[in-house]
Amino acid sequence: MLKHELRKKYKNLRAEISPTKASDLSLALANSSLRIPIWDFFYYHIFLSIEDKNEVDTLPLITLLQGKDKHVVVPKVVGSNSLENYLLTDNTAFKESAWGVPEPVDGIEIPENKIDVVFVPLLAFDEMGNRVGYGKGFYDGFLNKCRKGTLKIGLSFFGAEPKLITDVHKNDVKLDYCITPEKIYTF
């Protein structure tokens, strides 16, 4: 399938999930993360959810990471298509971006080469680990700057799209894992 078709399909599917159900599924995803081998690392980049888009709520996963004394890193959009990464601390102040994303105002910037694990936002993914985001390229650009061994983990309320994504671009970065409520996919 084409990315624009998948964006439309999965935005509609996500819109049908009640807030209570989304909260339950998000907690299940966080708990499922305990079953993948990522807990010996130090720096974990995680997106902050856009509430209006009914995204996976990453707060339970952030709480889990902090409970394991991991360094949590959150993104901020700079320029037209780049991300900066800031260490999440008790003093981190946030401001909502034009897209409705909570972003750190300032703080301790963490370079891409220090990040070990990235929890990647997505709308859909296929059985080969290709993902569909919102189409702005922020995460593909960011992931291409990370170390080769950085683990990329998608979080999705839905399973893999059975039809392969046909318009994959050469700069698109594949996932290593995707966590869903029913299954953990390994690519």
Which percent bin holds the helix content? 10-25%
Report the β-strand fraction as a percent range. Answer: 15-25%
The main sheet comes to:
7 strands, mixed
The rounded distance between the terminal residues' Cα atoms is: 19 Å
Number of strands: 11
Strand order of the largest sheet: 3-2-1-6-9-10-11
Number of helices, counting only DSSP H or I runs of 4 residues or more: 4
Radius of gyration: 15 Å
Structural class: alpha/beta
- Mean pLDDT score: 93
What is the string of helix and strand elements?
HHEHEEEEEEEHEEE
Low-confidence stretches: none
Question: What overall geometry do the principal axes of the alpha carbons give?
Answer: globular
Summed up, what is this model?
By secondary structure, the chain is of the alpha/beta class. The chain has helices spanning 3-15, 19-32, 59-67, 138-145; strands at 43-46, 71-78, 82-87, 94-96, 102-104, 117-120, 124-125, 131-132, 151-155, 177-179, 184-186.
